[in-house]
């Protein structure tokens, strides 16, 4: 395992930047070990819901973890708003960094993660090779 520390800038799309960092590293499998920072927009899909909810405002990233592959990511995150309320769920495209996002990735040399539709779940699920 190798590690890669990242800092994202204001305006970056969190999910897209993580997949781009994996691709730029030359690896085909990785995990987000942890992430902290702030967002101005969070797109979170809650358990059992078909579409994400949009959260806007000053949001703090409390936790961020998940798997990364060249063809997608499976990330979960919890955020708090300016009143300290905490929400969490599946990270969708459109999470916009407000001031910073500081992330630690684990890169897995010799491994390849892909996403394939699993008819049992209806979602593209992780395949490890």
From TrEMBL:
Superkingdom, natural source: Bacteria
Domain PPC: 1-129
SUPFAM superfamilies hit by this protein: AF0104/ALDC/Ptd012-like (SSF117856)
InterPro entries per UniProt: PPC_dom
UniProt protein name: DUF296 domain-containing protein
Organism: Duganella vulcania
């Amino acid at each position: 395992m190798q590690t890669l520390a990242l800092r994202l800038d204001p305006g970056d799309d969190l999910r897209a930047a993580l997949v781009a960092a994996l691709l730029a590293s030359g690896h085909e499998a990785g995990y987000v070990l942890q992430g902290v920072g702030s967002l101005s927009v969070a797109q979170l899909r809650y358990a059992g819901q078909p579409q994400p909810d949009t959260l806007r405002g000053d949001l703090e990233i409390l936790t961020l973890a998940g798997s990364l592959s060249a063809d997608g990511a499976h990330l979960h995150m919890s955020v708090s708003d300016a009143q300290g309320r905490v929400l969490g769920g599946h990270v969708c495209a459109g999470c916009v960094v407000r001031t910073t996002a500081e992330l630690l990735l684990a890169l897995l040399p010799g491994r390849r993660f892909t996403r394939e539709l699993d008819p049992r779940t209806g979602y593209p699920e992780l395949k490890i090779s």
